[in-house]
Design brief:
The chain is about 40% helix and about 15% strand. By secondary structure, it is α/β, with parallel strands linked by helices. The protein has a six-stranded mixed β-sheet, sandwiched between helices. Helix 4 (about 120-130) crosses helix 5 (about 145-155), helix 6 (about 170-190) crosses helix 11 (about 315-320) and helix 7 runs parallel beside helix 8 (about 230-240). The radius of gyration is 21 Å and the shape is globular. The structure holds nicotinamide-adenine-dinucleotide. Nicotinamide-adenine-dinucleotide binds near residues 204, 227 and 262.
Length: about 425
């Protein structure tokens, strides 16, 4: 097995290069990435009739069917979309594993501009793509998609949550989970839950940023807030007495805690020297541009809380729809993010970055499962038929029209690019 740290580094390198649009990987590189990433399955699908291009990455179904949102975005290339899917699906596996959910991790990406597409055509095609995976992957809304899109997906497959009639907007549960993670990190750092003397700088005043600001305001914290959308900043300033900060300044302000609630990749070579906070904990996915940036934060005394742990409230809330949990049960589980984080912080001690310990916990859970459960064990009987509930993900079901980049070629035959061999 390739050491996880190397895998992360390699993927992150590729994503960074893609993001800067200076590099286009060749096919060999893609194969190498699939192998080193150890994803179970990565499938792409195109349909010229509906002008659809999509990719689904399934990192793991060891603990149950892979669950992950469908994101629509204008990627520079299909490869860039694939790299994003790989990173995000791995984080979903870790998220479910640490939250104790019977799910694996996956992610779907549709390459396109969500403001100009024919939504019914695109999302019905997407639904057929998901259906071809026969329950190995269950999706929901994500960046650029909403419950109406999921209703179109539902016309073609049952393997979708986040419907208009379902658990609703995941943001309140996500924000509550971030708040609990912030409390745990504060008590670990300062031995006090009192936030009245703390200054908290929130990047992003959207759905999760706004709700987090509300909870922090109620807890008496002083708030500095920023968004590229002036109207969203104004809402938080007016409603919670926050002070507005320019978007280009928020990462360098003097504060105690930074919750990134906007974008991924905000912790990077350029921003780390600017940071003046003691804790980074927020809702954004993939906050570290590369894993080494988490190590660097640790080295300079900044506690970085793994994003997939802090923002797990959304998927936990989704269990109301997927597993028929009551709202109370879901909220109770989100509440416990506090305990999970505290045990990780205690295990990490001062020597190891907590995100490394969290990665190890999650990886161990994936490896330790004794027998692969029925993929859909425990799934809501309200949403899934008996046939679907009995589905077992043992043999890949390969639809003729997909272009499947399979999974686990013999990695010994592929030269490994080590961390020291850039
Ligand atoms: P959102 O779109 O409602 O809010 C994001 C906000 O960030 C927007 O208001 C946007 O204008 C702002 N923004 C963008 N670039 C910025 C910049 N450079 N500086 C400051 N603000 C900027 O999204 P959300 O639902 O609040 O999600 C925020 C993050 O959390 C995303 O990364 C998302 O993937 C992640 N997340 C969200 C949920 C959820 O339940 N909503 C769950 C898990 C993870």
């Amino acid at each position: 097995m390739v050491p996880a740290g190397r895998v992360h580094y390699f993927l992150d390198q590729r994503v960074r290069k893609e993001n800067s649009m200076k590099n286009k990987p060749d096919t060999n590189s893609l194969c190498q990435i699939y192998a080193e990433a150890e994803h179970e399955k990565v499938v792409s699908w195109s349909d010229p009739v509906s002008d659809y291009r999509g990719v689904i990455a399934i990192h793991s179904t060891a603990l149950g069917p892979a669950v992950g949102g469908t994101r629509i975005w204008k990627y520079a290339s299909d490869e860039a979309a694939t790299f994003d899917a790989l990173r995000l699906s791995r984080a979903m596996s870790y998220k479910s594993a640490l939250a104790g959910l019977p799910f694996g991790g996956g992610k779907a990406i549709i390459v396109g501009n969500d403001s100009v597409i024919d939504r019914e055509k695109i999302f019905r095609t997407h639904g057929r793509f998901i259906d071809s995976l026969a329950g190995r992957f269950i999706t929901a809304q994500d960046v650029g998609t909403d419950p109406d899109d999921m209703e179109y997906v539902r016309m073609e497959t049952p393997y979708v949550a986040g419907l208009r009639t379902g658990a609703g907007d995941p943001s309140p549960m996500t924000a509550y989970g971030v708040f609990r993670a912030l409390q745990a990190s504060a008590i670990h750092r300062w031995h006090s839950l009192d936030l009245t003397k703390r200054t908290i700088a929130i990047q992003g005043c959207g759905k999760t940023g706004y709700l987090l600001a509300k909870m922090l305001y109620e807890a008496g914290a002083k708030l500095l807030v920023s968004d590229i959308d002036a109207a969203k900043v104004k809402n938080v300033v007016d409603d919670f007495g926050a002070t507005a900060v320019a978007p280009e300044q928020i990462l360098g302000v003097q504060a105690d805690i930074l919750p990134p609630c906007a974008l991924g990749g905000v912790i990077n070579d350029e921003t780390i020297p600017e940071l003046k906070v003691k804790i980074v904990v927020g809702s954004a996915n993939n906050q570290l541009l590369e894993d080494r940036h988490g190590d660097e934060l640790h080295d300079i005394g900044i506690m970085y809380v793994p994003d997939y742990l802090a923002n797990a409230g959304g998927i936990i809330g989704g269990c109301q729809e997927l597993l028929d949990w009551s709202r109370q049960e879901a909220k109770q589980r989100v509440h416990r993010i506090y305990d999970t984080l505290l045990s990780i912080l205690e295990s990490a001690g001062s020597g190891t970055p907590p995100f490394r310990v969290a990665n190890q916990f999650a990886e161990r859970k994936l490896l330790d499962h004794k027998a692969r459960p029925t993929a859909s064990e425990g799934l809501s009987k309200k949403y899934f038929s008996n046939d679907q509930l009995n589905y077992r993900p043992t043999v890949p079901n390969q639809p003729a029209s997909t272009n499947e980049h399979l999974t686990r070629p013999d990695i010994r035959s592929i030269p490994f690019k080590s961390r020291d061999n850039k």
